[in-house]
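Replying to the earlier thread about multi-chain prediction with a worked example.

Input:
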Amino acid sequence: MTWSTFPVDNLLCRCLGISITVWWTFLFVFIIIPAVFGVSFGMRRFYMRTLLKIFEWAMLRMEMGAKEKNQELYKPYSNGIIAKEPPSSLQQEMQELRGSAGCLRSEPEFEMADIFYFCRRGVESIVDDEVTKCFSAQELESWNLLTRSNYNFRHISLRVTVLWGFGVLVRYGVLLPLRVTLAVTGISLLLVLTTLVGFLPNRELRSFLSEKVHLMCYRICVRALTAIITYHNRENKPQNGGICVANHTTPIDVIILANDGCYSLVGQAHGGLMGMIQRAMVKSSPHIWFERSEVKDRHLVAKRLGDHVADKTKQPILIFPEGTCINNTSVMMFKKGSFEIACTVYPVAIKYDPRFGDAFWNSSKFGMVNYLLRMMSSWAIVCSVWYLPPMNREEGEDAVQFANRVKAAIAAQGGLVDLIWDGGLKRTKVKDAFKEEQQKLYSQVLVGDRSQCSDMNHLAVKVHINV
Amino acid sequence: MGSSSSSMDHIPNAEELMQETGFSAAHLLRLYERFEFLDKDQTGELRPEDFGAIGGLALNPIGDRIISAFFSPGQETVDFPSFVRVLAHFRPNGTNRTRNGTQQEPVNSRTRKLKFAFQLYDQDRDGKISRAELLQVLRAMLGIQVTEEQLQSIAERAIQEADLDRDDAISFDEFKKVQQVSPHPQTPTKETPLHPTEGGR
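Result:
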């Protein structure tokens, strides 16, 4: 190679050349090659552990700083606006209020203090109510060095501020470009390879290769987000000819699940880049995309889904029955449509760890691009996926009951709260029936109804209302 | 969410409010965001309908009464300082700091809480809970689950127990006495049922 005659330019070029080469080598060797073969060096877990230690240290410093300045930190659970009670039933709380051991009474006995219970519940819901909470990001006890998730960050401690500044540099200067590069690589590979595979004439070869291609590209995308996923109970993985249902927090759920298995996706056909990706994917494996006009036609939807599951060679369908993104602290009502199809349902619970980055997509606050940017500039996306044993609709159970049963199983496994509210009604007009239920519970305390004395464990009103 | 979206500058008289109510800056900020969220049409003040939109409050049998506790008599709107002052009654007790070493009673003392509860009963603010007012509250809490006779007998017993000066109404002092007298065998020195232990989730 002949060098140019200008030494400064020469030096600059060399530096640039070397750094780019190093960058790409690093990318290739440590990230893309393992992704292609499905191998992992364990670097991401090490990164996760280190981050946790840093967060703990930062929290300690903030507490020290707050003590010095005689201020208080806002911690949603241990130092909130109102002293929070652990959720318990109306019966239990009333008994505590009255200090009585027995719950059998011969006559209704009212005490003036009973109003305190309703008063406190009411004020709690003014400060923070269940439905709104589901649609806004979860509040954290300790800070994770992201400004977006903290009320306490107000220059309490110099060291923490410096650390935060350094964190911003690392996240936006190093991690973000790296991730964007990976994402672009992953998506373009997906487009190119699925189209190529689609040209193959042999059906078996095509489905075999398409599986490999899909998995590979999703693995690259997972690394593009620095997603650290733990899969539990993989023996329950969805099989062909079934439907996989999961709780919905973010569009990234698809990538998280597809990283471990091949699914057929269901959705509306979009235009633009999304549309291109959709069309490319369909060439090599069967996905179900609906035109906008077809979405309204429930029979058509049901028929296409039914046809798909009837064919045992096709991959399981992935459906999110909540219909909208919820913030991963609770599970909202499942729409019954996917439970009406006669086949096995494989429930999956996904739980994100909010300490590293909030995965929830608040679609009213952020558009897609803004959201992806936030995702890629968080520390990491850490989540756990549980595959639950398959469920079938039982005799005499209708679709709604079946849906509720599946929802309860998912909520129990993922440690999420099982709510009665419908995700579509973000601002619910509460029905009078709910108020009546509260009144009924209270009157039972007064009258000392024997049958209710044993174990009404949860106040959440399990009223079966077809919303 | 978080300090990037709003800052203390938006809150009028933040320092005074903090002193008066005992909330810290972080708590105040959190409350301000909640206030803004509830204020759907961004007028800077809340109306009863804004409260009514909260699901958990709408299913509370005494929800309307709690809402009207925020509004001073004759007023139709609530601004942020008033909102915070009412909520300050429920601040957890362990975080009392006397900023200027005053002798006055902290906002979230037991008496203030009892006063708040008393006012839930005493809607006409005449300082006494009449039989009619007691009946109204009972009806709200029990709905159609008990008969009229049962309701009357419950109210009768409650007044007999509490009304010491035999004026057929319960004054605030009598109300306070009733709270202290009720037997609490398991929790002898429990301060008040409004201060649940710090049992976080």
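Residues 148-162 of chain B form the longest helix (15 residues).

Feel free to reuse this layout for your own posts.
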